[in-house]
Amino acid sequence: MALKRVCCMFYFIAFLWWSQWNGVFAYGAECRAATTSSRRRQLLERVSQVTASTFLLNQPSFALSPEEAEKAYDTYASTYNDLDGGQAASALGIETARAMLISQARGDVLEIGAGTGLNLDKYAADRITSLTLVDISPGMLREAEAKLAEAKILKSVPVKFIQADATSDLVRRFGTQSFDTVVDTFSLCVFGNEGTKRSLNEMRQVVKSTGRVLLLENSRSTNPLLGLYQDGTANVAAAVGGKGCVYNQDVGRLILESGMKIMKEEDYAVGLFRSYVCEARST
């Protein structure tokens, strides 16, 4: 029991580090960068509006539009790896979780929200026949393409980089039942609940009936203290510097509502993150 309490406290501290660096610290930098009082007022109004929806309405309110996401992530591209691939991510076990999930990819693979290519070195070249990386941000894709060239990985695998909106463009661009594996790591939280529903529906259609959808996502912790902290801060952190990520989504419920079946689910860091292996059909 004592060991369990110590582990929960460790994850709580690590999550505070990660989430506040992503949210509050970034917000502070944005305020310092605001050169006019009117700009500062706009930022404060944004915080108050989102905070009100979080505590008074008790429902998620924040979601980036595709246009906002493209612009924001173009800005984040050059420094994105410092956080999502940095020490805080490692302390929370994210790198281990990525490696375990991505190693299951087979055949023709589609990765949405591919970002700067943090997963590129996790793929087993002898198990995949092609890799298509999709992101809404051309800046992020340029970083991923540079990483692939510099690291000299996946040399035997055809790799494509495509700018697209994963909430609406997948079926139109690729057709139905086109991939053996569809992968996403930590993108759904940026889409909001409605965008997540649309994206999961797109994934369900583009993966083959015999294929798998592999997801690693932010989720509400199973620890009561952490869960309450997430509920109280998720929308605010997303709105003021957290890269648009609302980190307390009920991803499992959204997967089932999309018509997919969860074959395997794993918790990491007392449920702060979860991986899912899904089938395209629920029957």
Task: Explain the layout of strands and helices.
Layout: H1 2-22, H2 24-33, H3 37-55, H4 66-76, H5 80-84, H6 87-91, H7 94-102, E1 107-112, E2 128-135, H8 138-151, E3 159-163, H9 170-174, E4 179-185, H10 188-206, E5 207-218, H11 224-239, H12 251-257, E6 261-268, E7 273-279
Parallel strand pairs: 1-2, 1-4, 2-3, 4-5
Antiparallel strand pairs: 5-7, 6-7
Helix pairs in contact: 1-11, 3-11, 10-12
Q: If you had to describe this structure to a student in words, what would you say it looks like?
A:
There is one protein chain. This protein has 12 helices and 7 strands. The model is unreliable at 20-34 and 43-58 (pLDDT under 50). It has a 7-stranded mixed β-sheet with strand order 3-2-1-4-5-7-6, with helices on both faces. With 283 residues, the protein is an alpha/beta fold. Helix 3 (37-55) packs antiparallel against helix 11. It has a domain at 63-221 and 244-279: Vaccinia Virus protein VP39 (Rossmann fold, 3-Layer(aba) Sandwich), CATH 3.40.50.150. It is globular, with a radius of gyration of 18 Å.
